[in-house]
Amino acid sequence: MRDKRFFYEELADAFDETMNKYDLARRLQIIFQELLPENLEGKHLLDAGCGTGWFSREAASRGARVASLDLGPRLLKQVRGKCGSAGVVGDVLTLPFKNDVFDYVIATELIEHTVNPKDAIRAMSRALKPGGICILTTPNKAWYFFVWLANAFRLRPYKGYENWMGWQEAQKSFLECGCTIERMIGFHLFPFVHPATYPLLKYCDKFGNSIGPCMFNIALRARKKESGAQ
C-alpha cells in the first residue's frame, strides 16, 4: 500500500508549477510581515514541512540559521536550489532534534497532512527553546465539508492525509503544550482562490482578527512559556 505521507514527495519536481501563486505569496506575507516581523539575524529557525523551500528561503534571506525539514530527498533538492539551509529528511511527528533547540519554528500547511496534528504541535513545541515562537498556518476544519465534496466528485488530485483542525482545537493544542497564543487570525474567506476572487479575498483578510473562525485558513503565533512561568 502506498504511504500517504509521501504524496508531495512524489510531486516534488513539478510542485512549484502546480501550487497557487497567490496563496503562496499571501502566506509568505502573513508569516514574515504580520506574524514574524522581528529581526531573525543569527536565530535558529526550523521550517517544518518545508516543501520546496519558499519559506526557508525567506527566513534565510533575513539572516536566520535555517533547518529545512521534510519527508523526502526530492523535496529537499528543490530547497537547495533556493537557499543554503540545512536540509533534514525527517517526520515532524518524530523530529530528529533535541529539546529546546530552536528560536522559531514555522509550519505552514503542514499539520493537516500528518496522522495526528496534535502530536505534530507537541513535537514542534518540544523543539522550541523556552520563549521560542511557533508560527503556523493550517486549513480550518469548519470548511472540511467543501473538501469532502470535492473528493467525492473527484475534483481534486490530492491523495495524502487530511486531518484538519478547527480554530478552538488549534488554540487548545498549543495551550496544552505549555504555549501562549500571541496572535491568531483567519485568511482566505473561502476556498475559491482564483484570479477573479483575489481582490475580494485580499479585502476580506483585513477582517481576519474578527471573523477568523469563519475563514478558510488559520494563522497563529504561539510562544513557548519560559521555564518556571505560570
What features would you describe in this structure?
The model has no long low-confidence stretch (mean pLDDT 92). Helices cover 35% and strands 22% of the residues. It starts with 6 loop residues before the first helix and ends in a 6-residue tail after the last strand. A seven-stranded mixed beta sheet has the order 3-2-1-4-5-7-6, with helices on both faces. It is of the alpha/beta class and 230 residues long. The chain has one domain (4-34, 44-222): 3-Layer(aba) Sandwich (Rossmann fold), CATH 3.40.50.150. The chain has ten helices and seven strands.
Question: Which topology does CATH recognise?
Answer: Rossmann fold
Based on Cα principal axes, name the global outline: globular
CATH class, named Alpha Beta
Strand order of the largest sheet: 3-2-1-4-5-7-6
CATH architecture type: 3-Layer(aba) Sandwich
Number of domains: 1
Mean pLDDT: 92
How far from one another are the termini? Answer: 46 Å
Q: Low-confidence segments, ≥5 residues, pLDDT <50?
A: none
Approximately how much beta-strand content do the residues carry? 15-25%
H and E order: HHHEHEHEEHEHHEHHE
Alpha-carbon Rg, integer: 17 Å
Q: What helical percentage do the residues reach? A: 25-40%
Largest sheet: 7 strands, mixed
Structural class: alpha/beta
Number of helices: 10
